[in-house]
Structures are given as C-alpha cells and as structure tokens.
User: Fold this.
Amino acid sequence: MLVHSRKGKWAAWAVFLVLFVPLFAMPLLVIVAASFATHWSGVLPSGFTTEHYGAATRGESLQALTTSLVTALTASVLALTVGTWAALSAAALGKRGRRVMDALFVLPVAVPSVVVGLAILVAYSQPPVLLNGTRWIVIAAHTVLVTAFAYQSVSAAVVRLDPAYEQAAASLGARPSYVLWRVRLPLLLPSLNAAAGLCFALSMGELSATMMLYPPDWTPLPVRIFAATDRGSLFTGSALAVVLMGTTLLVLLLVSRIRSRASYR
Assistant:
C-alpha cells in the first residue's frame, strides 16, 4: 500500500468502503435479497421464500443456463484460438503491422455491441454463409465481441517473454513448431488462462447483441433475465441473476486454479 501511516491507512480504507459498498456491494446484495423475497413494499425486499430458485433451476430457465454455458465455452475457445494466433503473428510483424492488427481486433469493442450484432445479422442472413436463425450466429457474435480481450491479453504476455528460451531451443536444433508448442505456449499458459476466464465472463453476461440475434430455441440466460424483469417478475429475475453470477464465479474459480498451477509450472 502506498500509504504508510496508520491514520492514512484507516482513511484509505474508509474511502474505499464508502465508494465500494454503495456502488458495488449494495446492488448485488439487494439482488440476492430480492431473490429470496416474497414482496417489496419498503426500501428493501422482505419476506423469505426459495420458490424463485425452484423456477430458476428447472425447465426453460435451466435450458437457458445450459445455452449460456455452451455459448460462452465455445466462444471462449474460438476467441482464445484466434486471439492467440493473431497475437503471435503480430509479434513477428513490424511496428506498423502490429498497429494494424491492434486496430482490427480492438474495433469490435470500440463500437457499441448492438452495432456488432446488427453487422453480423446483416452479413450472415444471406447465402453463401447463412447463419440467421441458428445458434451459430449467437456464438459468432460472442466470439467477435470477446476475441479482442483475448488478443490484448496474450499480446501483452508475448511482449514480456524472454527470447532467451526460444533462442536456446532453436540453438539446440528445435524446429519452429516445436519451439511454439513446447516453449512459447507453456510460458503463455497463465495469460491464456486469464484470457479464457475474461472471455467466458464477458460472454456469459452479453445481452445487447444477443437480443438482436438469438433464435427461439437458443435463448441465453441474460435474455431470459431481461424478459422476466420486463414482465414484472422481479424476484424470479433476481434469482436467475444470482444463478448466472454463481455459475460464472464457479467457472472462474476453476479457471483460477488452472492458472495457479500454470504459474507454478
């Protein structure tokens, strides 16, 4: 901590709590409280029931959670593959080439996600690539939106790699493909895991582009949360939101364990 005096530390913690609790912690705690509530007539929800979680973990809601998981996992794998390949390719380019690559991969997050959704809808609604009305158009949109984060994360790690490892392997006669798979990628494992977790979390919560693209048989959980709250089912929507948060945090916890082991290696 940059503050060394006892009073300064207490002041810094006080400022942190004043900013953190009302802006970040309180809204989440209210959502959790609402997911167990029976009515909301005062400042905070009241009553207690677990029926909302029963509705949130079966039938269409469970199917929506499964859809979100499959979409997020598929999009994360695709984004990590494309982003890693692009980051490694950009590292071999000159300064101008790297700038062009950076601009291309950052462009989808530089514009509103609803614009990305509209662009994908227009691009893939006609042959030869007809994805409109299928699950693949949703997965494609999520992949486009999260690939930029995978690319940036891996690019930052590639810049920090010590070239001595690659030079030592090459001097011993290792082929470029062997250097890539047995030297560079293992060194990048912590960054790859971090990028995978970030891509997964962003995909699980994506709504704007998804609302424009999803077919009736491929409804992710954020869309169902929006639909529930839009109909006035606030408590059910809150339970769905808690299920979404819990599932995302559980997967990120698993990814963090893999990242810790990769860092140890």
About this structure: The beta strands are 125-126, 129-130.
